[in-house]
Amino acid sequence: MKEKRMPRVGDLPEGARLIAVLGGLPEEAGIPVLGAESQLLPFQSVGDNVLLGSESSSGFFLRRGPLDRRAAELLAQVGLAVPPSTPALDLDAVDRRIVELARALARKPETVLVDDRQSRFTAGESDRWSNALARTADHARVLVAVDGLADLRQVSRPFDLVAIAHGGDLVTWTAPEDAQELIGLLVGENPSAPRPVRLLGPVVLELENVAVSHPVRQDRLVVENVTLSVRGGEIVGLGGAQDLVLGIFGASTGGTVSGTVRLDGQSVDLSTVDRAIAARVLFISEHPPTYDVGLIGGIPTSVSGTSLARLARLGIIDKRREYLPRRAPSMLLDAIPGAPSRPSTADMNQVLAGWAAQPPRVALLTEPFSGLSPAEVEERRELIGNLAGAGVAVILEASDAMQLVGLSDRILLQAGTRLSTELVGDDATAQGLAAHRLRTDLQR
User: Fold this and answer.
1) How many C-beta atoms surround the C-beta of residue 251 within 10 A?
2) Residue 178: which pLDDT band, with cuts at 50, 70 and 90?
3) What is the distance between the alpha carbons of residues 252 and 245, in angstroms, rounded to a whole number?
4) Of the candidates 425, 393, 431, 390, which has an alpha carbon nearest to the alpha carbon of residue 410?
């Protein structure tokens, strides 16, 4: 299909109001962008947040009545039935994002960009969020960046277009029913490398109905109902499921982990990092997730999930705020003298080589290829393959599932709080993954 270069999102076809975007988030100056992390002022009212930056007044004083009426109108446009006087911290994660949609509409934009690639909504929450997006599309064009079309489950209306973003530009689009035409662009120019044939051993790790909660909001699940088995010598790729990996490794998300975990057929207690290591279930990452918690004692602080949970129990941080993990190193760390550094590429390679020489039962790796050169990627892939060759059960997780292709025997993607249908064999390829992203009928 001929590529349609669109340097400006305003050049989309007329009548396209609700658009799913694969491949990244388009960049356009002056257009409101909603990310996964809340940008609400937590100690202000809903109405104040909706009108932040777009208030109108007469004379020197803001008139409360007209402002509240305007905020109520905007909330009605996105389908959120709460009084403008409601404290923002009283809302749940979905309603806080819906308030941000109302704030975007207050600027009367032609287009709103929504980055939905890290959303961790349950099925019911996803329905509420999808309805809000659909209502917003009645007032502005809405582009929603998703990992797959199944993540954009519209309840009251279907999306009008599927578009591909490359380098911040929308480069092509098509109607949803013609979405198969986009597979080539999603795959790119590099075909999948053939996976090596591995001799798999018996099942080593079994998960049954495993769930992981948020480190602060223990009642909010970020992973639910995971049942999975991994055999010795097998590499199972997980796309966007870091919370599950860290839950297996001694509940190092900081959240509560429930369900059954078996190692070599026997129930095993992996509830702490020390117990996981003692059971030879090991974890490493160059990009472990951290949480920015602002200022503690005047020092910018970025902490792990377990530290975040500890701070919440001590009452040092506000439990009502939204805390989302960051995979990239936080700039806050640069401001802390003596802050522990992350493992270097050489350090991680040395650890992986040591694991192959003295194999653990299970190796857990997240973000193993981000930021590496092509030569470094090949070296890293060989080291991970050596782990499998030594009989280790390997779980490999990455936010970009394309990094898992050509190395994983199976690939499972997380959609919302659940793992979606696994890709095996010919489906565990770049083309198979692209086709999976274009499906709209996946069960959540």
Assistant:
1) 23
2) confident
3) 9
4) 425
Distance CA 250, CA 288 (A): 14
pLDDT for 116 beyond 80: yes
Q: What is d(CA 414, CA 192) in angstroms, rounded to the nearest whole number?
A: 21
Each residue's pLDDT tens digit, 26-83: 877 678 888 776 778 877 899 999 988 775 544 344 567 888 889 999 999 999 999 9
Record the pTM: 0.75
- Torsion-angle region of residue 251: left (phi > 0), alpha (psi -120 to 50) or beta? left
The candidate with the shortest Cα–Cα distance to 365, out of 408, 395, 403, is 395
Of the options 3.40.50.720, 1.10.760.10, 3.30.565.10, 3.40.50.300, the CATH number for the domain spanning 203-289+340-428: 3.40.50.300
CATH number attached to the domain at 9-187: 3.40.50.300
Q: 33: number of CA atoms within 13 Å, CB side?
A: 13
Rounded CA-CA distance 140/371 in Å is 36
Burial class (CB in 10 A: 0-12, 13-18, 19+), 223: buried
Residue of 86, 66, 123, 79 lying closest to 105 (CA atoms)? 79
**Domain spans of the chain, in order of start:** 9-187, 203-289+340-428
How many residues can be counted in the chain? 444
* For residue 209, pLDDT beyond 90: yes
Block residue for tokens 């209306």: 157
Q: Are strands 203-213 and 18-22 parallel, antiparallel or unpaired?
A: unpaired
Question: How sure is the predictor about 440, in pLDDT bands with cuts at 50, 70 and 90?
Answer: low
Note whether 177 and 20 are within 8 A (CB): no
Q: What is the DSSP string of 50-110?
A: HTTT----BTTB--HHHHHHHHHHHHHHTT----TTSBGGGS-HHHHHHHHHHHHHHT--S
Rounded to whole angstroms, the Cα distance separating 374 from 378 reads 6
Structure tokens at 303: 């902490």
Chain segment 382-429, per-residue pLDDT in tens:
999 999 999 999 999 988 888 888 899 999 888 778 887 788 877 888
Report d(CA 267, CA 263) in Å as an integer.
Answer: 6
Tokens matching residue 148: 């797959």
Contact present, 172 and 186 (Cβ < 8 Å) = no
pLDDT at residue 191, as a whole number: 57
Distance of CA 186 to the CA centre of its chain: 19
User: What local confidence, expressed as pLDDT, does residue 120 receive?
Assistant: 75
125 CB-near residues (< 8 Å, 6+ apart): 92, 93, 94, 416
State the pairing for strand pair 281-285/362-366: parallel
